[in-house]
Design brief:
Layout lengths: L2 H24 L15 E4 L2 E4 L4 E7 L2 E6 L5 H11 L5 E3 L4 E4 L5 H38 L5 H34 L2
Antiparallel strand pairs: 1-2, 3-4, 4-6, 5-6
Length: 186
Amino acid sequence: MAVNEVYDFTKEHMEKSIEALKRDFQTIRTGKVSVSVLDNVKVNYYGSPTALNQVATILTTDATTITITPWEKKLLKDIEKGIQEANIGVNPNNDGEVVKLFFPPMTQDQRLENVKHAKAMSEKAKVAIRNIRRDANDKIKKLEKDKAISEDESKKAQDTVQKITDDFIKKVDDSLKSKETDIMKI
């Protein structure tokens, strides 16, 4: 493995950490309700747990309401049950045709709690990025030990890995700042 391959490995894996963080952030509610709060809802579909968006059309009808229209009417009860089990903070309203979710406007406490949750998620992403840095540095040290690169090249490569790490940590911080702004906006 060459030093450039270590850099590529590092960037690729750190990018995946950022993508995972963004997916995690989508599950946190902001001022306007998003269908992504239902991403973790599973419905019993012919005996197997299936993602809600695989068995129904999900739309936000306004800032605080989500409407779920099942593709098969007999799924209404299973959808209701799946939403209750996912514990997303609201009870489903089934009118025989669609399931509606009415989210009350967020309180200041809820907003602060969601910001805290977002900070925890970003901290988890930073840990993942630092672990990738450690793996990359281990690979560089192995190259040096195997005499594939000199000690100077090893130091330079580790400095480059640190710069890459710093860039990705900044991306995490920027994502968090943006998410915090969304959460706190009324």
